[in-house]
Protein backbone atom coordinates (compact mmCIF):
# COMPACT_ATOMS: atom_id res chain seq x y z
CA UNK A 1 0.00 0.00 0.00
CA UNK A 2 1.24 3.47 -0.83
CA UNK A 3 2.83 5.16 2.19
CA UNK A 4 1.54 8.54 1.06
CA UNK A 5 -2.04 7.23 1.14
CA UNK A 6 -1.58 5.90 4.65
CA UNK A 7 -0.24 9.24 5.81
CA UNK A 8 -3.20 11.14 4.37
CA UNK A 9 -5.62 8.64 5.91
CA UNK A 10 -4.02 8.95 9.35
CA UNK A 11 -4.08 12.75 9.21
CA UNK A 12 -7.72 12.72 8.14
CA UNK A 13 -8.69 10.40 11.01
CA UNK A 14 -6.79 12.56 13.49
CA UNK A 15 -8.48 15.71 12.19
CA UNK A 16 -11.91 14.08 12.39
CA UNK A 17 -11.22 12.98 15.97
CA UNK A 18 -10.23 16.50 16.98
CA UNK A 19 -13.30 18.06 15.34
CA UNK A 20 -15.69 15.55 16.93
CA UNK A 21 -14.10 16.10 20.34
CA UNK A 22 -14.50 19.87 20.09
CA UNK A 23 -18.10 19.53 18.90
CA UNK A 24 -18.95 17.14 21.73
CA UNK A 25 -17.54 19.48 24.34
CA UNK A 26 -19.44 22.42 22.90
CA UNK A 27 -22.78 20.63 22.90
CA UNK A 28 -22.43 18.98 26.28
CA UNK A 29 -20.89 21.99 27.95
CA UNK A 30 -23.72 24.36 26.85
CA UNK A 31 -26.49 22.07 28.05
CA UNK A 32 -24.92 21.19 31.34
CA UNK A 33 -26.77 22.72 34.25
CA UNK A 34 -25.34 23.72 37.52
CA UNK A 35 -26.57 21.60 40.41
CA UNK A 36 -29.69 23.05 42.04
CA UNK A 37 -29.18 24.36 45.48
CA UNK A 38 -31.69 23.03 47.96
CA UNK A 39 -33.52 25.77 49.91
CA UNK A 40 -32.35 25.82 53.47
CA UNK A 41 -35.20 27.85 55.07
CA UNK A 42 -37.94 25.20 55.06
CA UNK A 43 -40.96 24.86 57.34
CA UNK A 44 -43.27 21.95 58.14
CA UNK A 45 -46.84 22.21 56.85
CA UNK A 46 -49.73 19.82 57.48
CA UNK A 47 -51.17 18.47 54.21
CA UNK A 48 -54.02 16.13 53.31
CA UNK A 49 -52.85 12.59 52.69
CA UNK A 50 -56.09 11.87 50.78
CA UNK A 51 -59.20 13.78 49.69
CA UNK A 52 -61.20 14.94 52.74
CA UNK A 53 -64.91 15.61 52.08
CA UNK A 54 -67.22 17.79 54.15
CA UNK A 55 -68.28 16.28 57.47
CA UNK A 56 -65.21 14.09 57.97
CA UNK A 57 -63.38 14.30 61.30
CA UNK A 58 -59.63 14.33 60.70
CA UNK A 59 -57.68 11.33 62.01
CA UNK A 60 -53.88 10.82 62.09
CA UNK A 61 -53.93 8.77 58.87
CA UNK A 62 -55.75 11.52 56.96
CA UNK A 63 -52.87 14.04 57.06
CA UNK A 64 -49.11 14.18 56.61
CA UNK A 65 -46.22 16.61 57.02
CA UNK A 66 -44.79 18.37 53.96
CA UNK A 67 -41.98 20.87 53.46
CA UNK A 68 -42.40 24.38 52.09
CA UNK A 69 -40.18 27.44 52.07
CA UNK A 70 -40.87 30.07 54.70
CA UNK A 71 -41.78 32.58 51.98
CA UNK A 72 -44.39 30.19 50.49
CA UNK A 73 -45.88 29.08 53.81
CA UNK A 74 -49.71 29.38 53.39
CA UNK A 75 -51.43 31.81 55.72
CA UNK A 76 -53.68 30.03 58.19
CA UNK A 77 -52.02 26.63 57.76
CA UNK A 78 -50.68 24.34 60.49
CA UNK A 79 -47.20 23.09 61.31
CA UNK A 80 -48.13 20.19 63.62
CA UNK A 81 -50.48 17.28 63.03
CA UNK A 82 -51.80 17.50 66.59
CA UNK A 83 -53.37 20.87 65.76
CA UNK A 84 -55.84 19.37 63.26
CA UNK A 85 -56.65 15.98 64.78
CA UNK A 86 -60.35 15.47 65.71
CA UNK A 87 -61.45 18.65 63.92
CA UNK A 88 -64.38 18.36 61.45
CA UNK A 89 -63.95 19.38 57.82
CA UNK A 90 -66.43 22.05 56.65
CA UNK A 91 -65.04 22.53 53.11
CA UNK A 92 -63.67 19.92 50.70
CA UNK A 93 -59.88 19.45 50.89
CA UNK A 94 -57.94 17.89 48.01
CA UNK A 95 -55.08 15.45 48.30
CA UNK A 96 -51.68 17.12 49.04
CA UNK A 97 -53.47 20.41 49.75
CA UNK A 98 -52.34 22.28 52.89
CA UNK A 99 -54.89 22.21 55.70
CA UNK A 100 -56.16 25.73 56.40
CA UNK A 101 -57.95 27.05 59.47
CA UNK A 102 -60.93 28.20 57.41
CA UNK A 103 -61.56 24.63 56.18
CA UNK A 104 -62.02 23.20 59.68
CA UNK A 105 -64.56 23.59 62.47
CA UNK A 106 -63.70 23.84 66.12
CA UNK A 107 -62.83 20.64 67.93
CA UNK A 108 -65.89 19.19 69.65
CA UNK A 109 -68.40 21.12 67.52
CA UNK A 110 -70.20 17.89 66.59
CA UNK A 111 -70.49 15.45 63.73
CA UNK A 112 -72.29 15.41 60.41
CA UNK A 113 -74.16 18.65 59.71
CA UNK A 114 -73.52 20.33 63.06
CA UNK A 115 -70.04 21.73 62.24
CA UNK A 116 -71.30 23.13 58.92
CA UNK A 117 -74.03 25.25 60.55
CA UNK A 118 -72.67 28.72 61.41
CA UNK A 119 -73.17 30.09 64.91
CA UNK A 120 -76.59 31.72 65.20
CA UNK A 121 -78.10 29.72 62.32
CA UNK A 122 -80.25 26.58 62.27
CA UNK A 123 -80.69 23.51 60.09
CA UNK A 124 -84.38 22.83 59.35
CA UNK A 125 -85.57 19.66 57.63
CA UNK A 126 -88.47 19.88 55.18
CA UNK A 127 -90.40 16.84 53.93
CA UNK A 128 -90.58 16.73 50.13
CA UNK A 129 -91.72 14.41 47.33
CA UNK A 130 -90.64 14.02 43.70
CA UNK A 131 -92.44 17.24 42.76
CA UNK A 132 -91.66 19.37 45.79
CA UNK A 133 -88.04 18.22 45.68
CA UNK A 134 -87.71 19.22 42.00
CA UNK A 135 -87.31 15.59 40.90
CA UNK A 136 -84.33 15.01 43.19
CA UNK A 137 -82.24 17.89 41.83
CA UNK A 138 -82.34 19.85 45.09
CA UNK A 139 -78.71 19.05 45.89
CA UNK A 140 -76.46 20.17 48.77
CA UNK A 141 -74.98 23.59 48.11
CA UNK A 142 -77.81 24.82 45.86
CA UNK A 143 -80.22 27.63 46.73
CA UNK A 144 -84.01 27.43 46.64
CA UNK A 145 -87.17 29.44 47.31
CA UNK A 146 -89.91 28.02 49.53
CA UNK A 147 -93.56 28.22 48.41
CA UNK A 148 -96.45 27.29 50.70
CA UNK A 149 -99.98 26.48 49.52
CA UNK A 150 -102.89 26.52 51.92
CA UNK A 151 -106.18 28.12 52.88
CA UNK A 152 -105.75 31.02 55.28
CA UNK A 153 -108.36 31.85 57.88
CA UNK A 154 -111.32 33.89 56.55
CA UNK A 155 -110.21 33.21 52.97
CA UNK A 156 -112.59 32.13 50.21
CA UNK A 157 -110.02 29.88 48.45
CA UNK A 158 -106.56 28.37 48.35
CA UNK A 159 -103.55 30.68 48.24
CA UNK A 160 -99.93 30.03 47.17
CA UNK A 161 -97.30 32.40 48.55
CA UNK A 162 -93.49 32.60 48.48
CA UNK A 163 -92.70 32.60 52.18
CA UNK A 164 -88.86 32.32 52.00
CA UNK A 165 -86.26 33.05 49.32
CA UNK A 166 -82.59 32.26 48.63
CA UNK A 167 -82.31 29.42 51.15
CA UNK A 168 -79.12 27.31 51.17
CA UNK A 169 -79.55 23.51 50.94
CA UNK A 170 -77.37 21.78 53.55
CA UNK A 171 -78.24 18.19 52.73
CA UNK A 172 -80.54 16.00 50.69
CA UNK A 173 -81.62 13.34 53.14
CA UNK A 174 -78.42 12.11 54.79
CA UNK A 175 -76.22 13.22 51.90
CA UNK A 176 -74.23 16.40 52.50
CA UNK A 177 -72.19 16.15 49.28
CA UNK A 178 -73.63 16.58 45.75
CA UNK A 179 -73.26 13.70 43.33
CA UNK A 180 -69.92 13.88 41.49
CA UNK A 181 -71.72 13.48 38.14
CA UNK A 182 -74.44 15.98 39.03
CA UNK A 183 -77.09 13.26 39.23
CA UNK A 184 -80.35 13.55 41.14
CA UNK A 185 -80.63 12.46 44.77
CA UNK A 186 -84.08 11.05 45.50
CA UNK A 187 -84.82 11.62 49.17
CA UNK A 188 -87.96 12.30 51.26
CA UNK A 189 -86.37 15.19 53.17
CA UNK A 190 -84.23 18.26 52.50
CA UNK A 191 -82.40 20.27 55.17
CA UNK A 192 -82.14 24.04 54.72
CA UNK A 193 -79.95 26.61 56.48
CA UNK A 194 -82.17 29.17 58.22
CA UNK A 195 -82.24 31.83 60.87
CA UNK A 196 -84.35 31.10 63.98
CA UNK A 197 -87.17 33.24 62.55
CA UNK A 198 -87.01 31.47 59.18
CA UNK A 199 -87.05 28.13 61.01
CA UNK A 200 -90.36 29.09 62.61
CA UNK A 201 -91.82 30.04 59.22
CA UNK A 202 -90.70 26.74 57.67
CA UNK A 203 -92.16 24.71 60.50
CA UNK A 204 -95.47 26.56 60.33
CA UNK A 205 -95.60 26.18 56.54
CA UNK A 206 -95.13 22.42 56.85
CA UNK A 207 -98.01 22.08 59.31
CA UNK A 208 -100.51 24.52 57.74
CA UNK A 209 -100.10 23.68 54.05
CA UNK A 210 -98.05 21.91 51.41
CA UNK A 211 -94.47 23.06 50.74
CA UNK A 212 -92.87 23.35 47.30
CA UNK A 213 -89.16 24.06 46.70
CA UNK A 214 -88.15 26.14 43.68
CA UNK A 215 -84.58 26.01 42.32
CA UNK A 216 -82.79 29.28 41.60
CA UNK A 217 -79.45 30.33 40.10
CA UNK A 218 -76.68 30.22 42.69
CA UNK A 219 -75.46 33.68 41.72
CA UNK A 220 -78.93 35.25 41.94
CA UNK A 221 -79.36 36.85 45.37
CA UNK A 222 -82.32 39.06 44.45
CA UNK A 223 -85.29 38.97 46.83
CA UNK A 224 -88.50 39.44 44.81
CA UNK A 225 -91.66 40.97 46.27
CA UNK A 226 -94.68 38.82 45.46
CA UNK A 227 -98.31 39.19 46.51
CA UNK A 228 -99.23 35.51 46.28
CA UNK A 229 -101.66 33.80 43.90
CA UNK A 230 -105.23 32.62 44.49
CA UNK A 231 -107.41 30.08 42.72
CA UNK A 232 -109.53 32.87 41.26
CA UNK A 233 -106.48 34.51 39.70
CA UNK A 234 -105.38 31.16 38.30
CA UNK A 235 -108.65 30.75 36.36
CA UNK A 236 -109.08 34.43 35.53
CA UNK A 237 -112.03 34.99 37.85
CA UNK A 238 -112.38 38.55 39.05
CA UNK A 239 -112.98 39.06 42.70
CA UNK A 240 -116.56 39.99 43.56
CA UNK A 241 -116.96 43.46 44.97
CA UNK A 242 -117.88 43.41 48.59
CA UNK A 243 -121.22 45.17 49.23
CA UNK A 244 -121.32 47.17 52.39
CA UNK A 245 -124.75 48.04 53.84
CA UNK A 246 -125.19 51.74 54.62
CA UNK A 247 -124.94 52.51 58.27
CA UNK A 248 -128.22 53.92 59.72
CA UNK A 249 -128.08 57.52 60.71
CA UNK A 250 -128.73 58.21 64.37
CA UNK A 251 -132.11 59.88 65.17
CA UNK A 252 -131.83 63.48 66.31
CA UNK A 253 -132.48 63.99 70.01
CA UNK A 254 -135.16 66.57 70.77
CA UNK A 255 -134.05 69.09 73.36
CA UNK A 256 -136.70 71.08 75.32
CA UNK A 257 -136.29 74.86 75.05
CA UNK A 258 -134.90 76.60 78.06
CA UNK A 259 -137.47 78.63 80.15
CA UNK A 260 -137.28 82.42 79.76
CA UNK A 261 -135.35 84.26 82.41
CA UNK A 262 -137.45 85.98 85.16
CA UNK A 263 -138.00 89.76 84.76
CA UNK A 264 -135.60 91.92 86.71
CA UNK A 265 -137.02 93.35 89.99
CA UNK A 266 -138.20 97.03 89.85
CA UNK A 267 -135.87 99.59 91.34
CA UNK A 268 -136.54 100.60 94.94
CA UNK A 269 -136.09 104.01 96.70
CA UNK A 270 -135.71 104.59 100.44
CA UNK A 271 -137.85 107.58 101.65
CA UNK A 272 -137.30 109.22 105.07
CA UNK A 273 -140.03 111.50 106.49
CA UNK A 274 -139.09 112.85 109.89
CA UNK A 275 -138.45 109.90 112.02
CA UNK A 276 -140.19 107.47 109.61
CA UNK A 277 -138.38 105.43 106.98
CA UNK A 278 -140.04 103.58 104.08
CA UNK A 279 -139.06 101.77 100.83
CA UNK A 280 -140.96 102.62 97.68
CA UNK A 281 -140.71 101.02 94.21
CA UNK A 282 -140.18 103.09 91.13
CA UNK A 283 -141.77 102.23 87.75
CA UNK A 284 -144.81 100.25 86.66
CA UNK A 285 -144.72 98.09 89.72
CA UNK A 286 -144.69 101.06 92.12
CA UNK A 287 -147.48 101.28 94.71
CA UNK A 288 -149.26 104.49 95.72
Describe what this molecule looks like in 3D:
- The protein is an alpha+beta fold.
- It has three helices and ten strands; from the N terminus they run αββββββαββαββ.
- The mean pLDDT is 80.
Mean pLDDT across all residues, rounded? 80
**Which series of helices and strands comes N to C?**
HEEEEEEHEEHEE
Radius of gyration: 50 Å
Supply the number of helical segments.
Answer: 3
Q: Major β-sheet, in short?
A: 6 strands, antiparallel
Low-pLDDT runs: none
Structural class assignment = alpha+beta
Task: For the record, give the distance between the C-alpha atoms at the N and C termini, rounded to a whole number.
Answer: 206 Å
Strand content: 15-25%
| Beta-strand segment tally | 10
Share of helical residues: 10-25%
Oligomer: single chain
**Overall geometric form:** elongated
